[in-house]
Amino acid sequence: MIPQMTSDVIMWILVDAILAVIIISLISRLLRLAKRRRVGKTSERVVGWTTIFDQLLKRSDGSTAVKKTFKIILNDLERLTGLRLPRSLTAMEVVNKLCTRFPDEIGERLIKLYEIYEPVRFGGRNPDRGDVWEFRSNLNELEKILYREIVGGLK
């Protein structure tokens, strides 16, 4: 036979259940807040690429600015995706791996940046004004798209 529950026991079970729901709710909110902060810091870093490129252009030539900025982009995107790619991969192999992790419009911008980076890095060519403008334009578009994807992903 099952013993009868008194009203005191029922009340305490109800109080415990309510407290459990409150605790779970608070933990859930805390985890969402922590995720937003982490993504917020990442998006700030992503949004800084055009600024970094502009600063490098002021301090050095276009070749150095393109090479260093592209390397920063690849490192940041690798970190953002959580990929741990071997250092032995070429820049194009890294771009291909990153393209599989992002929407097509991000991949397209990455490839356009690589098409400017490749002859500068491996051909020893100094980019002309048009190349610098195109690199900056694609970089700016990439930042906007990524920021929209990151911030949009929080909703």
Q: In words, what does this structure look like?
A:
The model has no long low-confidence stretch (mean pLDDT 85). The protein is elongated. It has 155 residues and is an all-alpha fold. The protein has one domain (41-152): Four Helix Bundle (Hemerythrin (Met), subunit A), CATH 1.20.120. Helix 2 packs antiparallel against helix 3 (62-81), helix 3 (62-81) crosses helix 4 (91-99) and helix 4 (91-99) runs antiparallel to helix 5 (104-122). The termini are far apart. 18% of the residues are buried. The protein has helices at 7-47, 49-59, 62-81, 91-99, 104-122, 129-152. It is 80% helix and 0% strand. It is built from 6 helices and no strands.
The total of beta strands comes to: 0
Main pleated-sheet profile: none
Strand content: under 5%
Q: What is the level-2 CATH architecture name?
A: Up-down Bundle
Order of helices and strands: HHHHHH
How does the helix and strand content classify structurally? Answer: mainly alpha
Q: Can you give the mean pLDDT? A: 85
Number of domains: 1
Termini separation comes to 52 Å
Principal-axes geometry comes out as: elongated
User: The CATH topology, please?
Assistant: Four Helix Bundle (Hemerythrin (Met), subunit A)
Integer-rounded radius of gyration: 25 Å
**Uncertain parts:** none
Assign the CATH class: Mainly Alpha
